[in-house]
Description:
Elements lengths: L4 E7 L3 H12 L3 E8 L6 H14 L7 E3 L38 H11 L4 E5 L4 H9 L7 E7 L22 H4 L2 H8 L5 E4 L1 H4 L2 H4 L3 H10 L2 H15 L14 H8 L4 E10 L11 E3 L11 E9 L1 H13 L7
Parallel strand pairs: 1-2, 1-4, 2-3, 4-5, 5-6, 6-9
Antiparallel strand pairs: 7-8, 7-9
This protein binds beta-D-ribofuranose and calcium ion.
Beta-D-ribofuranose binds next to helix 1 and helix 5.
Amino acid sequence: MAEKKKLILNCDPGTDDSLCIVMGLMHPDIELLAVTAESGNLTSDKSSINALKIMELMGRSDVPVARGMLHPLVRPHPSDPYSHGQDGLGNHFFPEPKLKVVDKHAALVIIDEVKKYPGEVTILCTAPLTNVALAFMLAPEIIPMVKEVYHLGGSYGVTHYAFSNATGDNPMSEWNVYVDPEAADIVYGSGVKLTTIGLDVAFNPEWVNILPETLAKLEKVGSTSARYALEIIDYVDRNNSLPDLFNNGPIDTVSMCTVICPEIIKTKEINVAIDTSDSQLTRGMTIVDCRNHFMWDNLHKIQTAYTIDSALYNRVFFEAITGLKYDEV
Ligand code: BDR
Ligand code: CA
């Protein structure tokens, strides 16, 4: 049997983040080392509690949940313009969890896990990068020890959904970079192996919808995780910000599925800068230099997704939510 992928999930649940936790717990190829909670959709005191609620929903107490910074590195925490519901979990209003967060800061958990398994740990970030940047600043020696980082964040002009889906508080930025552009700048420029999946790709309804066949299979399975996924998909569908298009894909799950099955996306190298200015119009914007006649060599060189295999995404989504084979249901 192939070795499981060791994963730290840095997230801000959040409806779509919460499905990533479920997937990390359910998929047989993933060993979820820890969930580290960010201040993003909600501040980390609340997003960490939401992570614990999902652990209890899934009957799991073996994966530590750590709380991160209450605010971005140098800025106040902005309030979320895209609603994940009053409780951040699509208005499920789960009971207060009995489980507790671990008595260690999220950044220290990241440092310790990477040091415990040098070269083996993938960090998936479906949120701002505050905890990861802090870990890299506190212990820069871990940067070459990280296997790779995936970030669901930014928007790289790959599709025309780039700016119509901007979820930051200005027309040009994506939420996970907008909240803490300084942290993103540190991680993107750290030299760590980084793959980004921009919002224009992860929210492109041509690629990331959960298809009727997959929904029917989830209905048929009817387990706790399948039912929860259906409820979140329904919530996303009802709160669709693209009124003329069918759009039910829980954004962050694209990146979780990619960690499980990297063939879901195709990537290309880009040169990108992050706007860390105070501009009301462009703060948090991920600016790609596409010119072939003039290339600044001071920009971050990273990989970004430019397409998604929709059928494969659906298959992996189903298998990660249910722990069952797509073709056997
Ligand atoms: C990101 O913003 C959040 O609301 C989602 O959870 C996702 O991580 C998309 O811009
Ligand atoms: Ca998120």
